[in-house]
Design brief:
By secondary structure, the chain is an alpha/beta fold. It has 5 helices and 5 strands; from the N terminus they run βαβαβαβαβα. β3, α3 and β4 form a beta-alpha-beta unit. This is Ribosomal RNA large subunit methyltransferase H.
Amino acid sequence: MNISIISVGKLKEKYLKAGIDEYLKRLSSYAKVEVIEVTDEKAPEVLSVAEMELVKNKEGEKLLAKLSQETYVIALAIDGKMKSSEELADTIDKLATYGKSKIAFVIGGSLGLSNEVLQRADEKLSFSKMTFPHQLMRLILLEQVYRAFRINRNEPYHK
């Protein structure tokens, strides 16, 4: 299975990089996992609605360029479906069973994902009604993907 985490923005925080590297190492025995970064659009702090859409659309074009036609796309979106760890494990297991060997989780920038990215997504996933920094979401997502593989293999992992 090939899993991509495609995210807007460059990760700068060393503590997040260390955590991400740890989960990438743990996941290497289960799947080929890569993290792909696309550059974020520079924008002032205060934006009009039209300017926000423009930024999301530019970032969205970069994200879409990283997706192949056969990739199953899961967009992380606050209005997506919330799943338990077991339900995410079941989703990944079913995708593998039915020949979807390429999965991409897409994480937008600070303004979220463009409508085009959301329309391309095969499903939308939400981790919470709370808002998390998009850089932190990479780490949380990788931990949950690792947990999903452990669940699917009936291997122990802390609850």
